[in-house]
UniProtKB/TrEMBL annotation:
This is Class I SAM-dependent methyltransferase. The keyword Protein transport does not apply. The keyword Transmembrane helix does not apply. Keywords: Methyltransferase, Transferase. GO terms for molecular function: methyltransferase activity. The lineage of its organism: Bacteria, Bacillati, Actinomycetota, Actinomycetes, Streptosporangiales. GO terms for biological process: methylation. Residues 46-143 form the Methyltransferase domain.
């Protein structure tokens, strides 16, 4: 079984792997938490969509100790890793693509914000519409949806989209040079080789939680689905290249 110290070591390795794709990851986290703090509530209720092992949730609680954060994900291994590393977090197992997932959260009232980081692009555009409608149903009026991800604009402004990716690539090269962190596949191969993670890895395989592809990678996929779900305002709150923080106001 995975103990706390081993889980923290795996989390450090996870964070480093993610930074290889997101050299501005911590800056994006900061912007997201700034937006939650700007709501002006001492104890905001926040739902972390596709929370993975809880990287964002842990930072949010550290920065805003009064916040109540409920993370939700369908990956048993990432949830198990997060529970071992961050026992103070509330992490719930549910699939955002399936009706009724909001009931699994156990909320005692409307949420002030729903946040997500590099997770929702796995959901295809049609499922995304239903998922955002579910998110709208658990947010209070004026509540926020904050989605940090690589979101492209090739369908609307292809020349700008190419420039955004170039800006991102140049920033990555400045930060890492030829010393890139391990990639996604290498991290998962290492997980599969660790006996302490065998039970969780088996559960992950059984659940079919292996993410592949980027079904809703366009900014328009998300903006259109959010407007259809009844969000009053939708726009980019922070951006570096095509790495952006999309914000929608309920």
């Amino acid at each position: 079984m995975l103990d706390h110290d081993a889980a923290l070591a795996w989390m450090a390795r996870w964070d480093r792997q993610q930074e290889g794709y997101l050299p501005d990851r911590e800056e994006r986290f900061t912007a997201m938490i700034d937006a939650v703090e700007a709501l002006g509530r001492p104890d905001p209720l926040v739902v972390d969509l596709g929370c993975g092992p809880g990287s964002l949730a842990a930072r949010l609680v550290e920065r805003l100790p009064g916040a109540r954060v409920v993370g939700v994900d369908a990956d048993p291994l990432l949830l198990g890793l997060g529970r071992a590393a961050y026992p103070h977090l509330t992490l719930v197992s549910a699939d955002l693509r399936k009706p009724g997932w909001t009931a699994a959260l156990g909320l005692d009232g409307p949420a002030d914000a729903a946040v997500s980081t590099t997770a929702l692009h796995w959901i295809d555009p049609e499922e995304l519409k239903a998922m955002y409608a579910d998110v709208a149903s658990i947010l209070r009026p004026g509540g926020l949806l904050l989605n940090g991800d690589h979101l492209d604009t090739d369908d609307a402004t292809p020349a700008l989209a190419a420039l955004e990716r170039a800006v991102h690539d140049k920033q990555t090269a400045r930060v890492f040079g030829d010393d890139l962190p391990e990639d996604w596949r290498t991290w998962w191969d290492a997980v599969a080789a660790d006996p302490a993670l065998a039970e969780l890895n088996t559960a992950r395989t059984t659940a079919g939680a292996d993410h592949r592809g980027s079904e809703s990678h366009l900014l328009s996929h998300h903006a259109d689905a959010l407007r259809a779900a009844g969000f009053a305002e939708v726009g980019t709150l922070w951006q570096r290249g095509h790495n952006r923080l999309l914000c929608a106001v309920r």
